[in-house]
Specification:
alpha+beta; 60s Ribosomal Protein L30, Chain: A
Amino acid sequence: MEKILSMIGLAHKAGRVEIGEESVGSAARAKKARIILVAGDAAASSVRRAMGFANTGSCLCLIVPATKEELGRALGRTSCAMAAITDIGFADAVAKKLAALDPEKFGSAAERMAVKAQRARERKLEQLAHEKNVRTGKKRPSKPPEKAAPPEKEERRDREEKKKPFKSGPKARGTAARSRQKSQARARFEGSRPVKKGKGSGRKNS
């Protein structure tokens, strides 16, 4: 049990422990409490309140085999009925040491805490990776340049375009008809003399 108390003391020096009913309740409501530890000789009302805090904060609540004086001494107090560890790493370490001390009583709690610690580490790694991407920026793969068609295909395309018949329609038929009429008129009057303009038929009166 001394090793467990020493671990709790280290967490307290790192600023990762909330001490007392009011502080533990605030940490649980803020979802910061990872595990709530209750002294073995704490009052039944304190145990009920600690369990309620654990339900509110979705964290574990364990009654440790240590007196209020022993728990308080590890935290620099004369007495402490309950405390909450807010760091997932320290909470996982304390749960594992408790499971090693009494596997039957704390084994399942240690397993649950190990799962939570693993998820927290994965979320932290994802967050770090996201922040790194934001800082450096991921470069999107550039699109390969479009390849120009070979000259043979271009020539073939031009020949196909030339072979395509012209679109027929009313306008096209009318234009072709007018062109034929003009060419026929030119052919009909080709070689004829121009008509002199003047009054009458051009004959002299006798």
